[in-house]
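User: Hi! Is it possible to get a structure for several chains at once, not just one? Here's what I have:
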Amino acid sequence: MSTTGEMSETPTNASASEARPVPRRSNWRRVRTLQGIAYALPTLVFVSILFVLPLLLVFQMSASSWKLLQGNKGLNLPTNFTAISSNQLFWPAVVFTIEYTVVVTVLLIGLGLGLALLVQSSGRWVSGLRTSFLLPGAVGLATASLLFWGFYSPTIGPISPPLMELGLIHDPIQFFLTTWGALLSVVFLIVWKYAGFYMLILLVGLQAISPELMEAASIDGATRWQAFRHVTLPLLRPSLALALILCITGSLLAFDQFYILTKGAPSNTTVTLVQLIYREAFQRQNLGTAAAISVIVLAVLLLLNAIQFRGLRVGRAS
Amino acid sequence: MTIRSSSGFSRTPAYVLTGGLALLFLFPMLWAAIASVSPQGGTEQAIGYGLGNYQTLMDFGGGLLQTFFNSALVSVLTVALTLAISVLGGYAFARFTFPGKNVLFLLTLAILMVPYATILIPLYVFLGALGLKDSLVGLALVLTLFQLPFATFMMRISFEAIPIELEESAYVDGAGSFAVLRKILLPSVVPGIVTVGIFAFLAAWNDFIAPLILINDTNKFPLPLAITVLRQQTMGVIDYGATEAGVTVMAVPCLIIFLLLQRYYVRGFMSGALKG
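Assistant: Yes, the chains can be modeled jointly so their relative placement is included. Here is the combined structure:
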């Protein structure tokens, strides 16, 4: 971006040039516009080539016969979409992804709020607590999944071997034997990793509530629960809505944790939507149907976000 | 709430309770580090404590050093690209008016709305067409794309927070717009740059699904992919010890960065949470 030299001819700023003749001012404006475009150019190029074009391509792929190895074999419009309904994994994946999202969202927002209330005040002890709660968030999701894969293992993990040593159980606990066992094992990992993150978001909201309001409530004779229910919660609505949007979106797109921990076990009952997309594309090698599922997920997500953003706006207005 | 409102000796249970909770959050990471050096049948570290599991990592596939280098290269490239694009872009969005400015800004934010997998499938085809199949540079480009919404937003609000008077006098003195950016604005947005850098590094270092889809050559695997493949490698016997050693290798840089720069990390979430 060698825009350094161009400016030396017009060493003024917009307000100082008010008194100058019109041509110079419009020249300054034109130069500023060109400079703005120049600085935004890398963003424009990047977003166009790596985002807009691929996005258009995914729509084209969803409407085409497009195999991983053979490439594009032309339009076949409704085929990829009609194939979805006959895909035996599709509806179970939809149901399972929704179940997972509900469980994770309830637990994460609940626990996040609890932790935020716990670390509201300042001081060394509390800031130490905050750091401990936030620390798992710095570790990657794949790393955390691999960590818990060992954590739940019957041989090396800290759960089964000590219990067996103590004689409390005879055989190691099988965490991934049932669908709910597998689901809750993943949920525990996710709550561990992300609780601090939601604590932080809700903490921002809590700290924006003026202490006078809480004092006024207690002077008026409100119990702590009443103050929380009728003062804190309503004022926390924007932060809660943001946490909700992030949590629901993130959970609906879950992949790493299931790919690494459960691999669909037991018998493909813990396959999420994104895992299904991955399977279609790279195991069944059908990019067309994978793109079709992607387009549907994208549409649902956009709809959901639009609804939630409206909720957020309403929450702010009231 | 619990701690602030209680006082005197009634505090002790609160300390025990909250301290226990903190330990619960720290325990899995401590366990992984200890397990990686503990004796365990079926691993390289069969008897006594030691670094046998790390030795397994050194010898596996492309080797730990190569894998570590791959991860480091992708992370450094992603951080550099993200910073270069978002600093210039943030400056453009904060200080200039040009046609299409709002559309481009919203389009950049819209990257957040599109699921990772939705965009990775066409990108897989697309990078192939660009000659970037199986390339760490291609991977860094994709990871940079996913950093752009947060990075551009963060840099824009960082530039907007600087009073405009500073630049005006520089312009009167005949400085160009790039000189103004470099000499006057850049020092003021260092906190924003650090925040964007941390997030870009953590995302690139830890990403799993993008390399899973885009990289096939085992010699080019970044750490998370290599460790995931490692545990599937030895048929029948699963090497948990080496896996936890890999977990430790991956986690330590992240934890160090987090502990050193926690202030900036928290700041990033705060700005996001405040502006919604």
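Confidence is low (pLDDT under 50) at residues 1-8 of chain B. The CA atoms of residues 133 and 276 of chain B lie 36 Å apart.

User: Great, thank you!
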